[in-house]
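Running co-folding for FE2/S2 (inorganic) cluster.
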Amino acid sequence: MISFQVEDLNNQIDNIEFPEEVSLSLMEVLRAWNYPIPAICGGKGLCATCHVIVKNGLHQLQEPTERELDLLDILPDATYRSRLACQIRISNLIEGCLFHLQANKKSYSPC
Ligand code: FES
């Protein structure tokens, strides 16, 4: 099992455990847990409505692509700890991470 934490929009922290053999993105897992992630592009890395802040464990994650960084650059609330949850695969790399939800705040949305 992989375990990580999610801090919701009310700053409540939940512990999440998920089997490591699944082939899902963090965005898909968050939606499965009923977090309010619009994900209007379906995980293609185009809408930024899955924006999260990695409060713990940023440096253990796979590096973001240039395309992801370009989209994060235009978000008004992005920080150096920002990532797109749809671009993070569930793997041992996220063990112990703490993700703060930014979706539905002031993230960019083309719709
Ligand atoms: S779901 Fe659209 S960028 Fe992640």
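Result summary
The pocket of FE2/S2 (inorganic) cluster is lined by residues 27, 39, 41, 43, 45-50, 84, 86 (CB under 6 Å).
Residues 106-111 have pLDDT under 50 and may be disordered.
Job closed.
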